[in-house]
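Re: your question from the hallway

Yes, I did run it. Sequences:
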Amino acid sequence: MKKVRIALLGLGNVGKGVWNILNSNREAIMKRSGYDIEIAKILVRDINKKRTIDVPEELLTTNADEIFNDDSVKIVVEVMGGIEPAKDYVLNAIRRKMHVVTANKMLIATNGQQIFKEAEKNEVVVNFEASVAGGIPIINGINESLTANKIQEVVGIINGTTNYILTKMTLENMSFEEALKEAQKKGYAEADPTSDVEGYDAVYKLAILSTLAFETEVDVNDIYAEGITKIKAIDIEYGKELGYVIKLLAIVKEVKGKLELRVHPTMLPAIHPLANVNDSFNAIFIKGDAVGDLMLYGRGAGELPTGSAVVGDIISVLRNDTEGSNVLIRNYADKEVVPVESFKSQYYLRISVKDLPGVLGKIATILGKNEVSILSFIQKPKKGEFVYIVIVTHETFEGNVNKSLENIKKLEEVNKIENVIRIENLDY
Amino acid sequence: MKKVRIALLGLGNVGKGVWNILNSNREAIMKRSGYDIEIAKILVRDINKKRTIDVPEELLTTNADEIFNDDSVKIVVEVMGGIEPAKDYVLNAIRRKMHVVTANKMLIATNGQQIFKEAEKNEVVVNFEASVAGGIPIINGINESLTANKIQEVVGIINGTTNYILTKMTLENMSFEEALKEAQKKGYAEADPTSDVEGYDAVYKLAILSTLAFETEVDVNDIYAEGITKIKAIDIEYGKELGYVIKLLAIVKEVKGKLELRVHPTMLPAIHPLANVNDSFNAIFIKGDAVGDLMLYGRGAGELPTGSAVVGDIISVLRNDTEGSNVLIRNYADKEVVPVESFKSQYYLRISVKDLPGVLGKIATILGKNEVSILSFIQKPKKGEFVYIVIVTHETFEGNVNKSLENIKKLEEVNKIENVIRIENLDY
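Structure:
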């Protein structure tokens, strides 16, 4: 059996998952990769930290150069996360002709092009399946399996924390705050949950997916992001009445050669496959011109699922260990991005108004003038000073909705635009 | 741009899909594969047949040797189906050092090992993504993405015809006969639907999936098969009452080193992701020791979805066109197969009995003696001479159920064992 030496950068959750899988499935992995994989070194911040796994101390180092100066290391596995020093390390490894496997969404989303160019120059492979949606083979799916297709649309639930929170709000009638607390207790949400609940985590992942699916360089700053903190129990309830479920979706669509890129809470038909993706599960829905509708569903995080993707990537490097086999064409086009006011969608509008005759007529008139036509509405019985008017529009441009709302806000009968939630029907 | 010449064997639905995709997505495919793909020859049965696509007549031939004797052909795409002459052609192509892409489930399920050995010897690639579940990248998923895992279980809805029929029966209360007629009208079912409705089509696909997932040579004859013709509207109705949906599932599980291999109608919890796979869609659920639960969902048939898989396989050959790159280890073990009486499952039993006191007690006693314990039961009000007793058991061995039923049948109060349907909870 041929031997290969690899090094890990980082020994957090994902690193532990990789260590455990390489040990527990060693024989199967030897058979499938053709190599006996030996972990040569592991870069950690603190050698003496108490760990839940039993790693021989002599493997640990705090000095990255020990790895880069070791010619016998063929693959560097970056599972430390964050941009610096990960970027520096990855580029270093590539320049020393080491293949790289990374789980780092931020790094790939923001510095992917530089890294891939460096890899091409040095004829090494950079694999990053674990950077999006943990164990779900979505990167491989787009890059390898769907190459016959023009991809038209990718719509994903790619943040487990917010999906867990929305599931608890939907199925157990929790408030956002209660559900967040529960998620934190379970370890699904961090003490500072901003990156998850505001949609930033999903933005990085969507940047990677859209770059691959549309072969264009997508800048994270070009992705519109809106979090789930504005979702109230009452919106979920009205959504149900209307046949919708609310999910935080990451969406990219090609519309007349331009890309619509957005992350926001979305109402989905309750019968859509994505609507039934619950708890911390992730799922990605793809529409291709040949394959039609395709969905991949699974664990988007966790040490073992993410480790599964990392180790799969390592095996893939070993199977293709011919020089210059990184054949993926990275000659991306530069597609334009659709501005927010040109997003096309249906909209759910919840407006609190004084219970006076004629108010719905005034609202409807304003919408009509701005070319927003109404699909359905519910007026809710009075509870306090105001009543809610809930309107579902036909598909229209976001700019039209915004112009309407500016004018509706000014009506004296209107108290407040309580919420605006986009609706995706996904032609399902 | 490098050029490559390929040949098609067959120009039926899948062949047409391949032709259309190669033409309509030509530029994207060039960019992704690095090759300009030229279709050199297409083997057909009748050159003068009217076709719905516009193929230059000089490409068509009825003589396979014209293809095999053309050294410039690098890839042979077998989309004719059936075992002979497809097998002969595929082996011929391999021996002439042509790579092979095939969509042929029967061929791979029954002669895969011989074909792969011949391919290894001749250092060519044989890709067969399209042979199972059309456009869903399940072969690539198991062979490439999940290599870090010990797969524990694969459960799939891999026959679109029966899924369409069961969906119509479940959501629109059609009878089996009505739903079958509808499926035939839509082109989902053939005039002779036996292979689909009796589960044989799913057996071939399951043989391929289990061979790959468990790295063992699975013989189609070792797979237990039961079709959906025995499913009555009333079973679907009682299933709903109990919280279950009926699907034709193809199941393989490793139980103490042996494989349970079976295709049969199954009751699934209504909230399981597979229970919500409707119409002619397919889906495959995989449990891996690292990745956890994973599901792939999409179009299991149709010219374009299946063509998507075939063309993806062609591109994959072109990207890896280094000699001997067919590194997939095909050194399979030979795992034992669990006999039917040792299947472990929960069971739904529908029994028609005379409405006499004590009959449930007698049935329960027999079940108890055979170590079958009852989870729940419903007794249905009298309609005709008999009443139905519906029993859901705890998990038990199939042998115990069968022994019980033999004795229950003999009770004078019992008219008939109307139906026995396995229930899978899939630990979801």
